[in-house]
Amino acid sequence: MEYIEKLFYIAQDYWFLTMIVGLFSTFIESFLPVLPLVGIVTANAAILGLWVGLIISWIGSGLGTIAVFLIVSKFNNNKIFNRLRNDKTDKAINWIEKQGFRLLFIAYSCPFIPGCLVTLASAFCKRTSKSFIPAMLSGKFVMFLVVSYVASDIKGFITNPLKIAVFVLLVFLSWKIGSKVNVSLEKNNNSNNKIKDSKLYE
To answer: Where in the cell is it found (predicted)?
Structure first.
């Protein structure tokens, strides 16, 4: 996070450079999920304003996620990419194969669900670009809009109890949705295991 703050500080007097830094930061986060996406989106909105910051973050993150999805989809049989698969990824794959637009939209609009996991699972289960990209972009837009709205006017937001209440409610609902998705993943995985076990004894 420190290097991002330094880059933004240096670029404050250079509008175009600031946009490039903001775009690159959200793009590279798709490949390095350890970077704080919400923090980057917040910085973009605080420096560039609500709409410019929102669009820059959305384009950068969207392009990065599409790039990861296409790369993994192309080489998902490669040994290197197979190492990315684990229990969590397999659970997500099993569920995504049965769900459609709604699941992907919710997953990308909820900050409590790891977007990288959803991207990898979508690629591994060979979801088509036509079904993946619209849902992903729509979900990210909703999440980024909320984050950018708060970040673009932090002082006004803090002094307005109603805005704080709405934000807390959105965070709570987002957390509840994320929790339900995780529970559904567990249930789906358990049901699949039971089916496999029953077939073994047939």
So the answer is: Cell membrane
Alpha-carbon distance values, 170 to 111, 125, 162, 176 (Å): 11, 31, 12, 10
Beta carbons of 37 and 29 less than 8 angstroms apart: yes
Instruction: With beta carbons less than 8 A apart as the criterion, state whether 44 and 57 touch.
Output: yes
What mean pLDDT comes out for the span 77-86?
64
Output DSSP code: residue 36: -
Burial 10-46 (b: 16+ CB within 10 A, else e): ebeeeeeebbebbbebbbebbeeeebebebbbbbbbb
Torsion over CA: 78, 79, 85, 90 (sign):
positive
User: What is the model's pLDDT at position 201?
Assistant: 42
Q: How confident is the model at residue 51 (pLDDT cuts 50, 70, 90)?
A: very high
Please say if the pLDDT value at position 136 is more than 50: yes
